[in-house]
């Protein structure tokens, strides 16, 4: 907007535009006269095929929702913002959301620390595929070595550099070293190629930037106006009336042409997530940590002042859809399989067969994402940034093809089961941007990695321990509700550690099912036909407990409270692990039958007492 435009004229024009858009007069970016209402998510759904079937339309020649699947999948933005006929003439359609967006930015500009500034610079200037490697934690250094991945950006200057800085292979790097994910001819070349493929020809955010032309936050005021003060800074850039500042280290990295430098969606964010989701596919042992790392890296765009929360959320939505599309493309089937096999063989040779254990064996002094509770808090906050939401009861429909994102993290589930995991762990409707076409923004991959959120119907899980990895042993940490029940089959081991309330009962057919919370078994009956039901803490069974075979394994002194009957048949075994003096009590409304065998640690004996309503086992020294 020209500096000569007076405030009275600006206010009048704002009110006029707000009225023409059907809004109350208020903070609105100066806008072109719109000839049509914004294209809604419902309208664009019928224009494009599913994203995974049309993602190759995401090229620079296509900048409309009708022609570009990426622009279309981001049309949740059209509820917040109407693009103008120039970069600085759009209209705010949701003042509450976009004001909150800018308030957050202003707060960050005031409070960011020196350490945060330095990290934001490094994340901006490093190749994004290299920065994402940090999410591998204890495996990161091994990956860099095997992939020959290097960077020339390792620290931040104290002020504004004299020139623009770009990443480059540092002097002295090993022969064949490469930026980003590394060298395609290295020991991990298939993984490198997978990362590069996800970030390939159809994965740019630039067509969407051109379509939406939502300005960078440092060009906008708190009221989401663009006000050019008519002055320039020491680097020759126009100065805008904004409370948001870019960190000094990146002042020379700003785009000089506003019309070609939109903020939505964040390109760095798109790249961070694409690289991280590619790594997560090949190295699922660090799935949640890589997702957390991507979210953490994306937030550096906010800290830097280069992008706003809206931009970052848009980048995540786009990358999630793109990752699913590329991974699900039949043309990439052999590549993704080879990358998974290569990564597993490489890391197992380096650290041994317990790759999952090694991948989580460090603490926060050497692994920034070792604290799972902290990871969860970060993810929950950054998924929405707390932007104002509206109440909505819209059902979650999982996007076509999204299940591939969990393909290696939950290999023991069918595609349909992984879709149900995504559905039952998704964010509720009503959050800004997230309710766009196909609901890609509502997916919560961190929560999905922890299993079902509810059982809408009975679920049977078959795990094959001979396949290793998560097929041999996995943990479901979510609080599982619903009317369905769980049947555990196969030789693998599954642990339930949530506060579960599912009502359909639990049946153990084979393998191991570990009870790691007081309510792990939900609110129905429990039946053990074979396998091992391992109880690691006192627990409650709200229905009946029937053990016809298999083993009930108790770890230490604990109490198993059964609201209904306890029915034991001759094939039922009990194994008590613990120390002398431990007492295990199984109490129900009535006890029928006895354990066929009772096994205790060497050097101890078990005194077993059966009463009408309880089985009591006391460990004593021989």
TrEMBL record:
Residues 1-36 form the signal peptide. Keywords: Signal. It comes from the Bacteria. Residues 190-327 form the Phosphatidic acid phosphatase type 2/haloperoxidase domain. PROSITE patterns: TAT. Coiled coil: none annotated. This is Phosphatase PAP2 family protein.
């Amino acid at each position: 907007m020209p500096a000569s435009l007076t405030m009275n004229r600006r206010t009048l024009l704002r009110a006029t535009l707000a009225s023409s858009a059907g809004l109350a007069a208020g903070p609105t970016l100066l806008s072109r006269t719109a000839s049509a209402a914004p294209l809604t998510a419902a309208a664009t759904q019928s224009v494009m095929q599913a994203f995974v079937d049309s993602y190759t339309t995401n090229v620079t020649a296509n900048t409309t929702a009708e022609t570009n699947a990426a622009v279309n999948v981001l049309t949740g933005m059209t509820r917040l913002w109407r693009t103008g006929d120039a970069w600085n003439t759009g209209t705010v359609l949701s003042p509450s959301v976009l004001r909150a967006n800018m308030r957050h930015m202003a707060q960050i500009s005031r409070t960011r620390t020196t350490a945060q500034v330095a990290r934001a610079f490094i994340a901006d200037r490093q190749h994004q595929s290299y920065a994402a490697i940090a999410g591998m934690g204890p495996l990161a250094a091994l990956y860099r070595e095997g992939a020959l991945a290097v960077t020339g950006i390792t620290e931040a200057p104290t002020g504004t550099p004299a020139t623009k800085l770009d990443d480059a292979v540092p002097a002295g790097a090993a022969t064949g070293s490469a930026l980003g994910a590394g060298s395609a001819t290295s020991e991990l070349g298939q993984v490198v190629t997978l990362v590069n493929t996800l970030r390939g020809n159809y994965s740019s955010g630039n067509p969407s930037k051109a379509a939406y032309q939502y300005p960078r936050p440092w060009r906008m005021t708190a009221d989401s106006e663009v006000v050019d003060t008519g002055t320039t800074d020491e680097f020759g850039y126009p100065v805008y009336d904004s409370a948001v500042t870019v960190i000094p280290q990146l002042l020379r990295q700003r785009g000089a042409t506003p019309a070609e430098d939109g903020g939505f969606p964040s390109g760095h964010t798109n790249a961070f997530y694409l690289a991280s989701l590619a790594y997560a596919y090949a190295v699922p042992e660090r799935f949640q940590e890589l997702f957390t790392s991507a979210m953490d890296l994306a937030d550096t765009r906010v800290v830097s002042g280069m992008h706003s929360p809206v931009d970052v959320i848009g980048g995540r939505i786009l990358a999630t859809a793109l990752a699913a599309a590329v991974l699900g493309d039949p043309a990439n089937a052999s590549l993704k399989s080879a990358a998974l096999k290569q990564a597993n063989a490489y890391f197992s040779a380096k650290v041994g067969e317990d790759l999952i254990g090694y991948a989580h064996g460090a603490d926060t002094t050497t692994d920034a994402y070792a604290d799972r509770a902290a990871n969860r808090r970060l993810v929950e906050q950054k998924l929405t940034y707390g932007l104002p939401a509206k109440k909505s009861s819209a059902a979650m429909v999982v996007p076509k093809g999204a299940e591939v994102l969990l393909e290696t993290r939950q290999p023991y589930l069918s595609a349909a089961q992984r879709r149900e995991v995504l559905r039952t762990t998704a964010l509720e409707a009503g959050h800004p941007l997230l309710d766009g076409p196909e609901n890609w923004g509502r997916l919560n991959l961190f929560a999905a990695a922890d299993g079902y959120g509810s059982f809408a119907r009975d679920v049977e899980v078959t795990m094959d321990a001979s396949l290793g990895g998560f097929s041999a042993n996995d943990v479901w940490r979510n609080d599982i509700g619903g009317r369905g029940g769980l049947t555990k089959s196969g030789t693998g081991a599954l642990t339930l550690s949530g506060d579960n309330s599912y009502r359909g009962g639990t049946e153990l057919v084979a393998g191991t099912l570990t009870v790691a919370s007081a309510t792990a078994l939900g609110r129905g009956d429990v039946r053990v036909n074979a396998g091992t039901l391992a109880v690691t803490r006192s627990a409650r069974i709200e229905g009946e407990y029937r053990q016809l075979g298999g083993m009930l394994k108790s770890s230490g002194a604990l109490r198993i409270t059964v609201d209904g009957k306890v029915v034991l048949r001759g094939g039922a075994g009990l194994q008590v692990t613990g120390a002398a003096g431990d007492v295990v009590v199984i109490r129900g409304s009535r006890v029928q039958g006895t354990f066929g065998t009772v096994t205790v640690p060497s050097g101890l004996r078990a005194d077993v007492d059966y009463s009408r309503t309880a089985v009591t086992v006391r460990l004593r020294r021989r």
